[in-house]
From TrEMBL:
Residues 8-17 have a biased composition (Polar residues). It comes from Cryptolaemus montrouzieri. This is Uncharacterized protein. Residues 1-32 are annotated as: Disordered. InterPro entries: Endo/exonu/phosph_ase_sf.
Length: 132
């Protein structure tokens, strides 16, 4: 069964698990204890156990919660299949797909209004079955 985790993170603060229905103002500028200003953002993680069967749930949850980032593990798709699974208003930023055997994989999507790019130095560290 898929597991849902919704976390609100604010710069260098530790993540906290929030209720899926929690309301938050994603655009309000805040100041941390060091006087640095930041905008809070939200991350949604799903251990999908096949993105194909979970896509509708993903779309509903991120729309209701104004998530800026989506992390999907166990998407179970190959490198040529994953781009076909589009989340409206999000772009696929980084992914890992197994070349052999079934299942596994990880993907990171980012909201279209956020400027981001993949960290190639980190994606090169991926090891099938151990660190995807």
């Amino acid at each position: 069964m898929p597991q849902y985790v919704y976390r609100s993170m604010q710069n260098s603060e530790s993540p906290r698990v929030s209720n899926l229905g929690e309301e938050s103002d994603q655009t309000t500028m805040r100041t941390n204890s060091n006087g640095e200003q930041f905008v809070p953002y939200s991350v949604f993680h799903l251990n999908a156990q096949s993105i194909g069967t979970a896509q509708h749930k993903i779309e509903c949850i991120v729309q209701e919660n104004n998530c800026k980032f989506i992390a999907i593990t166990e998407h179970w798709k190959g490198a040529n299949q994953l781009p076909a699974y589009v989340v409206p208003a999000y772009k696929l930023v980084s992914s890992f797909c197994r070349r052999e055997k079934k299942h596994g994989g990880a993907a990171v999507y980012c909201s279209g209004d956020v400027k981001c790019s993949a960290r190639e130095d980190l994606t090169e560290l991926s090891v099938p079955y151990l660190f995807e």
